[in-house]
């Protein structure tokens, strides 16, 4: 291990498919060690994972970090949002966690919105109109479909809460992640007793919300991880809020993240409340807000189209007239939980490469359509889009975002921004700094800027037209004929 200038901290990203750990020099931001281990997600009607796999993956990732992890003075967990983790009285999972991309709770989401005042009331109450991704809808689904599991539940946690709790032995969460549950009121920054009563969830089962800059606890003796006893544990946060920390975002800077899901977001000093439900009014991990729009289908969906065509993911070809909406898992933005992929405009001379480009266009169209709603009215609409996530380094993704946005695009060189953001949060505990200021000191957003090109309004209009005309098909539930 190279010599570190300052204390070491650990940042963790527990995502849908793997857990990554970085050991970072709190003084310079240098990554001195890293590790990664996978976990599995069920296929079929639901999307579930065993939380114990997350813990095993964290242990393996930290083991790969070697002695550096043992020297860390603080640790923080960034994790996939919305997942419902139910624990019994012994702290063991009652059942596999229901993940963010499990859309079986779409009927419960619709019913909850109607029963508690409609979309505008929900937006004003919690900052968001809950869709099937939100944890409150998953709890309602569980109560309806697996009442025995609900009766056995002694604690309800989010994915990052579960790992933080195994580190500290205490039940904690943070404002960034809890703002995506649907049972936390963004106006009062407290659990919403009316919502909890309506879905039959005892607030005593929920974790304590740790404030920004506060310590969640210390690593307890029985954790089994390579930390010194007494190592500080930060509050942690959801993955998008952690990535915002990792970029050191200032208000108004737009981010487009290309991963399993696609997201667009920006830090705002104003509390969001979008009654259309397109923008989720999340809190950030610092005390501001993180209005965000999310799509379910992004890099995996486009890669699946490439695989079906037998093409490399970069083998795109230009060509007008074909539209592909890659809604392979249903969709959240637009809100079409029962949708499947849709292809329109196929001709004899259409090539596989043009079909693949159409899949990229369809995925990016959904994200850019939400961007204007995410940004405050006074945001600089000509500022570069920060392009992050697994797809950000792909040429086809970069060129598609440039062509359909008409904006310059900046690609940060730093990798693993969720884990870096968690590390910055851990470093802030030690130095007393704002974690975003820590990340700016580390210069995490540094990277090349790709110049703006003329926006392809023709393609944007064509996709919007197909989406509008196909609405009855896309909204149809599977059991209808």
List its traits.
481 residues; alpha/beta; seven-stranded mixed beta sheet; D-xylulokinase activity; ATP-binding; kinase; EC 2.7.1.17; xylose metabolism
What does the model show?
Helices cover 35% and strands 19% of the residues. The chain is of the alpha/beta class and 481 residues long. Strands 1, 2, 3, 5, 13, 14 and 15 form a seven-stranded mixed beta sheet that branches. It has a seven-stranded mixed beta sheet with strand order 18-19-17-16-22-23-24, with helices on both faces. Strands 4-7 form a two-stranded antiparallel ribbon. Helix 13 links the parallel strand 22 and strand 23. The model has no long low-confidence stretch (mean pLDDT 93). Substrate binds at residues 81-82.
